[in-house]
Amino acid sequence: MNRNALVWIAWKLLNSKRTLFGGAAPLALFGLVLGVASLVVSMAVMSGFETTLQKAMTDVSGYVQVVKRSRFPDDWRELEEKIRKADPKLVSAARFVFVEGIMAHNGQISGVLLEGIDKDRVNQTLNLGSRVKEGSADLSQPSDVPLALIGSGLAKKMGLQIGDQFRVVLPIADSSDPSSFNRKVGTFKLQGVVELGKYEWNERFIMIDLKVAQEVAAIGDRYTGLMLKFDDAAYAREAGFRISTALGSPYWVRDWRDSNENLFDAVAVERPVIFFVVSIIIFVAAFNISSSLFVNVMQRFKDIAILKTVGVSRKDVIKIFAAQGLILGAAGLILGFILGLILCVLFNWAQGRLGLISGAVYRVDSIQVNIRFLDTIAICVATMLICFLATLAPAKRGADLNPMEGLRNE
User: Fold this and answer.
1) What is the pTM of this model?
2) Rounded distance between C-alpha atoms, residue 189 and residue 96, angstroms
3) Could you tell me if 69 and 251 are in contact, meaning their C-beta atoms sit under 8 angstroms apart?
């Protein structure tokens, strides 16, 4: 018997009020839908967390950072040339410097991290423009007061609006007495509020032009290091290894993954665990489908007997009832994916309105859920395989039925 005929018979035996629309079958199908939806949402959130954190790192701190171990000035152009020779795939490089200070505004005080970035190269190296919530990320506009970008959390805490001026107090080491510090105050004008992607960055970061930072901190032409950009974020680790080997010990090279290695490793470990745990819901639903098919076999003794009488083989009977399980599995899979997508949209909406994600705990303030192709394939294969295995027992029971016994019972 050909495949189309088997599928048609399977559907006719399944599509009835006492099978598909009655008994435990609807509940079994509903359980399968919930299981698939839960699996879609959990995998989307896990993938979204990893993608959100990765994008934050590459957008704000570059793909690779080369940090100087000494604070002595050098020619950064020579350093860039060495890096380009070590890895010709380098797209762009920009200098940066970090200075710690205290921000004061409207009677409030907060510890901040002042980052000076090369305004002539920042747009080629970083992706700050896509993260602006208010104002602009352009630090090159003419202004009497140096322009600054600050994290969204810091702006909210300090009550700052675009165009407001604020002060940052920096400790400057005394050249005559290294154990004492002088105080220097820098005044800045808020140019843009930026969603930096990481909780601690949003709460502490202030970005200004590199030359302004060097002047305020009184460090001359010194800088902390270079931020590097490549075409592919996945290539950053290989590039970092090559650059580290070429530059040697005077420099410290790290890629976007290094500073959050523990989080990325945790996601890699938790992903299969969560997949397995949530899949238990699908296992339970599949066994409910199996029990429904057992009942269907018992109710279809006469139909099975007639099929065997007209020459349908034992193997074809197994295929018929296995096809019924696969039909239910496919229906649950499709409906589960639809429900999962709806829940993902609701999750994106709710985390913005209700604050579901605690940045102090998860390091990010929000997660942009991401349904990966490989996760989709894994969910489909796992669901259909579980449903298929669950149908084998009732299918075998139907195949072992003696036609005379089936007709006698009727």
Assistant:
1) 0.74
2) 20
3) yes
Q: Which residue has the tokens 């698939």?
A: 36
Q: Which residues contact 30 (CB under 8 A, 6 or more apart)?
A: none
Rounded-to-integer distance, Cα 50 and Cα 269, Å: 12
pLDDT tens by residue, 147-178: 999 998 899 889 899 999 999 988 876 666 66
Close Cβ partners of 240 (under 8 Å, ≥ 6 residues apart): 64, 253, 254, 255, 258
Q: Are 101 and 160 in contact (CB under 8 A)?
A: no
The domain spans of the chain are 3-57+262-409, 60-258
First to last CA, the chain: 26
Using a 10 angstrom Cβ sphere, with 0-12 exposed, 13-18 middle and 19 or more buried, the burial of residue 111 is exposed
Query: 182-192 in b/e burial notation, b at 16+ Cβ within 10 A?
Result: eeeebebebbb
Whether residue 108 contacts residue 290, with contact meaning beta carbons closer than 8 Å, is answered with: no
Residue 18: is its pLDDT beyond 60?
Answer: no
Report the C-alpha gap between 56 and 381 in whole angstroms: 32
Task: Name, in order, each residue with C-beta under 8 angstroms of 150's C-beta and a sequence gap of 6 or more.
Answer: 160, 190, 193, 194, 205, 206, 207
Question: Three-state DSSP class for 135?
Answer: strand
SS (H, E, C) 232-271: CHHHHHHHHHHHHHHHCCCEEEEECCHHHHHHHHHHHHHH
Could you report the per-residue pLDDT of 264-311, keeping only the tens digit for each?
888 888 888 888 888 888 888 887 777 777 766 666 666 666 666 666
**DSSP 8-state code for residue 364:** -
Q: Is 160 helix (H, G, I), strand (E, B) or coil?
A: coil
Residue type, 276: F
- Given a contact cutoff of 8 angstroms between Cβ atoms, the answer to whether 310 and 403 are in contact is no
Contact criterion met (CB below 8 Å) for 32 and 289: yes
Q: At what angle do helices 261-299 and 373-399 cross, to 10 degrees?
A: 20
Residue type, 150: I
DSSP-derived secondary structure for 71-109: -----HHHHHHHHHHH-TT--EEEEEEEEEEEEEETTEE
* Nearest C-alpha neighbor of 210 from the set 200, 196, 220: 220
- The DSSP element (H or E) to which 173 belongs, if any, is strand 165-173
Q: What share of the chain is helix, strand, coil (3-state, %, to 5)?
A: 55, 20, 25
The whole-angstrom separation of Cα 60 and Cα 295 is 60
